[in-house]
Amino acid sequence: MPTAKPQKANGAGVQQIEVGGPQPYAVQVGGGLLSQVNVPEQQVTLIHPEDLPPEFVERVQRQLGPVLTLSVPPRDECKTLDVMAGLLSRMAKAALPRDSAVVGLGGGAATDLAGFVAASYLRGVAFYTMPTTLLGMVDAAVGGKTGVNLPEGKNLVGAFWPPKAVWCDTDTLATLPPAVFREGAAEAFKHGLIADPSLLGRVLDPEFRPHGALLESTLADAIAVKAGVVSRDLTERGERAFLNFGHTLAHALEGVTGQATAHGEAVGYGMHYAARLSRALGGTDLTAHTLNFVRWQQPTPLPELTYDLISPYMARDKKADSDGMRFVLLHGLAQPYLARVPEEILRREFVGWWEDIQGLGLKS
Ligand SMILES: NC(=O)c1ccc[n+]([C@@H]2O[C@H](COP(=O)([O-])OP(=O)(O)OC[C@H]3O[C@@H](n4cnc5c(N)ncnc54)[C@H](O)[C@@H]3O)[C@@H](O)[C@H]2O)c1
Ligand SMILES: O=C(O)C(=O)C[C@@H](O)[C@H](O)[C@H](O)COP(=O)(O)O
Ligand SMILES: [Zn+2]
Predict the structure, then answer these.
(1) How would you write the pLDDT of the chain (364 residues) with one tens digit per residue?
(2) Which residues form the 3-dehydroquinate synthase C-terminal domain (predicted)?
(3) Substitution candidate for ligand 1 out of 59, 60, 75 with most atoms within 8 A of CB
(4) Which of 21, 43, 191, 267 is deepest in the core (most CB within 10 A)?
């Protein structure tokens, strides 16, 4: 799969990755960026999670001037239609016009919600993202998939609504709990498996950490994978589906646990299932890579699960069509494809996956 390589934008160590497509924009990666952000719109709604370190919010407020600042519950608690309705009412009461903008500041949950608010308010206003988690930087804040969850499953309502610019201030990663940083590593590792195998070792390297020697170059290369894919296929008519590697089981795990499983941990678990399915269908055996990732990530252990409990959630995956479920699999490293998998293989590999995960002896 071809990837776009980032370019250095300036001498201050800020890297810039260009995203193409119908509305091109840039992703900037570097330290101190929250103190440099700027948007042309006069009126702005700033949406952030309530548990975000307040200095990030203050930095953006100082930069943008008076803004309508709206805080939302942490993690996926904010990705509901109820929370969204509350935000839209606040914006309508403030009579924000169509030429205003919405800024999403925080992790992927907050930027997914903010983007869907931007896509919906007055049928669409400008949107900007300022991700403050690893996952947000390498994945969620780029590419314009926005949305919220339903009780029936993950991201079941949403819109493609790309941001006009993305600022990844790498200084913000310093306050991230290490476990949340490792959640985000799952999506960077995924980019390694589907497109850029050079990422696999780098993502697990001890220098890939806040302020680490490998942080910014690895971030930029992981973002470049996503930028390349969404530049060519914004609305998932084709290759964008490959970004969903590991997600059929991941979203089912999140759904069946009522969103108690963090997305990045669910993706770690889900990639191992997808690697097992890939091997079962004749692909190169990549399960040592994926199991090693889960061991490294040390996710929260899962509750007792069975295939019958999980499969209704997998059936609601957005890659399913009228002929049934489809999975992103790998012929080998950087060779993703979309396939239907016979039910008996799904069931058998689920049992093997569960045994592999139990064998790790994860501690809660
Ligand atoms: N739109 C997309 O393409 C896309 C891609 C991947 C994931 N997602 C979505 O992203 C969400 C997961 O995002 P996430 O992993 O960023 O988790 P998250 O948004 O749930 O954030 C995790 C926690 O960290 C806090 N936090 C954020 N930045 C912080 C910082 N710098 N310091 C301290 N705490 C901080 C958050 O407030 C939250 O409580 C899921 O809802 C997932 O579905 C979307
Ligand atoms: O950007 C994409 O496309 C992705 O699939 C990236 C995923 O990491 C992300 O979790 C996305 O939100 C999943 O999308 P969905 O369409 O399966 O809900
Ligand atoms: Zn994801």
Answers:
(1) 655 454 445 556 899 999 999 999 999 999 999 999 999 999 999 999 999 999 999 999 999 999 999 999 999 999 999 999 999 999 999 999 999 999 999 999 999 999 999 999 999 999 999 999 999 999 999 999 999 999 999 999 999 999 999 999 999 999 999 999 999 999 999 999 999 999 999 999 999 999 999 999 999 999 999 999 999 999 999 999 999 999 999 999 999 999 999 999 999 999 999 999 999 999 999 999 999 999 999 999 999 999 999 999 999 999 999 999 999 999 999 999 999 999 999 999 999 999 999 999 998 8
(2) 184-320
(3) 75
(4) 267
pTM value is 0.97
Please count the other Cβ atoms lying within 10 Å of the Cβ belonging to residue 337. 14
- Say if residues 246 and 236 touch (Cβ distance below 8 Å): no
Q: What is the DSSP string of 174-198?
A: GGS-HHHHHHHHHHHHHHHHHT-TH
Contact 171, 31 (CB under 8 A): yes
**Ligand with the closest atom to the CA of 262:** 1
Burial of 364 (0-12, 13-18, 19+ CB in 10 A): exposed
Closest protein CA for atom 13 of ligand 2 = 244
In which residue are the tokens 């064998």 written?
A: 359
Ligand 2: which of 247, 261, 267 to mutate, most ligand atoms within 8 Å of CB?
247
Q: Which atom of ligand 1 is nearest to the CA of 76?
A: 41
Give SS3 for 275: helix
Sheet holding 44-49, edge to edge: 7-8, 15-19, 25-30, 166-169, 126-131, 101-106, 44-49, 68-72
> ipTM exceeding 0.90?
yes
Q: Which residue puts its alpha carbon closest to atom 6 of ligand 2?
A: 243
What are the structural domains, with CATH classification, of the chain?
7-232 (3.40.50.1970), 245-359 (1.20.1090.10)
Residue 320 exposed, middle or buried by CB count within 10 Å (0-12, 13-18, 19+): middle
